[in-house]
Amino acid sequence: MNYHHNHVAAVARHFQIDGEFLHAERYGSGHINDTYCAAFKKAGALFRIIFQRINHHVFRNPVALMENVERVTKHLAAQLTTDPDRGRRTLTLISTRDRQSWFLDPEGNYWRAYLFIANARTYDAPESPAQVFQAARAFGRFQQQLAELPPPRLHDTIPGFHHTPQRFAALEQAIASDVAGRAALAGPEIDFALAHRHMVSTLLDARLPERVTHNDTKLNNVMIDDVTGEGICVIDLDTVMPGLVLYDFGDMVRTATSPTQEDEQDLSRVAMQFPLFEALVRGYLSTAGGFLTAAEKQYLAFSGKLITFEIGIRFLTDFLSGDTYFKVHREGHNLDRCRTQFKLVESIGQQEERMSRLVESL
Ligand code: ADP
Ligand code: GN1
Ligand code: MG
Known about the structure:
It contains twelve helices and eleven strands. It has helices at about 5-10, 60-80, 85-90, 130-145, 165-175, 185-195, 200-205, 245-255, 275-290, 295-300, 300-320, 335-360; strands at about 20-25, 35-40, 45-55, 95, 105, 110-115, 120, 210-215, 220-225, 230-235, 240-245. Strands 1, 2, 3, 4, 5 and 6 form a six-stranded antiparallel beta sheet that branches. Strands 7-9-10 form a three-stranded antiparallel beta sheet. The longest helix has 29 residues, at about 335-360.
């Protein structure tokens, strides 16, 4: 949904923001929620706030989701009390005037507001091994900081989110019903998916520990400091919930080891680049290495292939279903995204042994 800035201004009035609203624009490249960056003025000084409308078709219980986000951001902030830069090192929710972390607008949409993290940005494609190291280090630190989150268990904001066999079953259903009449356009992709069925339950069968994980560790969900290049803040916390650390590592491999965007149409450019993978593993282990078990480490290389496959079949399912889940910006967009993922699955598959040897050597 693309809201007029007047609508964002009306939403903003319900939050505890002391300043004059100037304007708001769409922001970021997420596929699910609507993000706006709004500018305010107070005593001649400008400041910005991030507003997000939660997609309640995808996140069926926004109130439970926000309860998770409140607990997680408070827990992270409590570990940063002596850090002068703490306002940039974790997301900070702004409360509404009646002290809630969310506002329900008259149309039934849930909104939240975050302090703007300045002098940092996100990247849709990796630019260097050093940057990838930093991103992975930040995600590893995030997991480490949440390892001690006190009970109760976080809510599952999307049940079965990384249950690859269920994702595969949904694809089979979409192929069988072919509601949009598109299956004929995706013959090779359907064949590819069906030929890889054998790997869908590998991680679930490996009896790995459940931990608090992010579950959407795309490269563009970590803010990189403009000056130092450090991965300063993990964002996009809607899917923080119990999961396997390998889901997180796998999605980092998917989005940070090929120098292309997720929807790159020139497939000759899509490939897992070993130096980027090496930087990723080193960055991740620099913060997560202390708590990972041997079994978790053993599947690091494989997890990249599996999660890339999983997201690929999700894009394919959505293409076959008529693009009802992910935002699309052109015809065949989800099919393009699927092709990019499957090309990367192949590329990882070709290098998997070498990747595993590297992990073992570290
Ligand atoms: P989406 O679900 O749409 O991916 P994100 O939470 O990832 O939503 O936000 C989209 C983009 O907005 C991010 O990639 C980032 O560039 C920017 N962004 C999000 N939160 C902040 C923040 N607190 N400060 C500055 N920029 C932010
Ligand atoms: C979605 O919201 P966003 O754009 O960060 C999706 C992820 C996918 C990703 C693919 C809730 O993430 O699972 O990996 O697109 N989020 C949800 O780019 O489904
Ligand atoms: Mg995001």
